[in-house]
Amino acid sequence: MELVLYPEPVLRRRASLLEAIDDEVRRKAREMFDLMYREKGVGLAAPQVGWSVRLFVVNALGEPDSSGERVYINPEVEASPGPVEEEVAEEGCLSIPGVRGKVARYRGLAVRAIGLDGQAFREDLVDLEARVFQHELDHLDGILFITRLSTTERMLAGKTLKKLEKEFRERSRPTR
Ligand SMILES: [Zn+2]
């Protein structure tokens, strides 16, 4: 399993619902955690490993501690009951190395999803957990955090993005 980097097209695609949760899915989710820990991330969405399904893994502890491990399958945001509160904080993405920038996200939200055991669950998330959920859910809809940056920050990221685009073209060139 390898990390897929910007601008691979799979990162811009809307991922499909995951219909069945079997051993293969459980094995892949485990591999995603291992890859995420190696890359020092707090969240990883299936499209980031070239798997276009609605699944992501999160561990907001930022270290390989299984007590913080969460798997969200076919996740959804429930309507927030109170007034919507947004918070701006810096984000990065394992698929876009070298780019960081400030993104506004809801500070808290109620979500629902299916777990690896096939059971539906609902959770109230706040702060980092809420932010990671929104960043990863965006991945399932083909949205990258760079599209949510301010114009200034997007301009600052431009050089790094150009470099990643060039590396992608070189990787994709047919070998003979
Ligand atoms: Zn990301």
CATH class: Alpha Beta
Bound molecules: zinc ion
Report the biggest beta sheet as strand number plus sense, adding barrel if it closes.
Answer: 5 strands, antiparallel
Q: Structural class, from secondary structure content?
A: alpha+beta
Order of helices and strands: HEEEEEEEHH
Annotated CATH topology? Peptide Deformylase
What best-fitting shape do the alpha-carbon axes yield?
globular
- Regions with pLDDT < 50 over 5+ consecutive residues? none
Distance between the termini: 25 Å
Integer average pLDDT:
94
| Number of domain units | 1
Strand order of the largest sheet: 1-2-3-6-7
Number of strands: 7
SS strand fraction: 15-25%
Q: Determine the CATH superfamily.
A: Peptide deformylase
Number of helices: 3
| CA radius of gyration | 16 Å
How does CATH name the architecture?
Answer: Alpha-Beta Complex
Question: How would you explain this protein's 3D organization?
Answer:
The mean pLDDT is 94. 26% of the residues are buried. The chain is built from three helices and seven strands. It has helices at residues 23-38, 127-140, 151-172; strands at 43-45, 55-58, 70-77, 86-92, 100-106, 108-114, 120-126. The radius of gyration is 16 Å and the shape is globular. The protein has a single domain (9-79, 88-172), classed as Alpha-Beta Complex (Peptide Deformylase), CATH 3.90.45.10. Strand 6 and strand 7 (120-126) form a beta hairpin. The chain has 176 residues and is of the alpha+beta class. The strands form two sheets. The protein has a five-stranded antiparallel β-sheet. Strands 4-5 form a two-stranded antiparallel ribbon. Bound molecules: zinc ion (ZN). Zinc ion (ZN) is lined by residues 93-95, 135, 139.
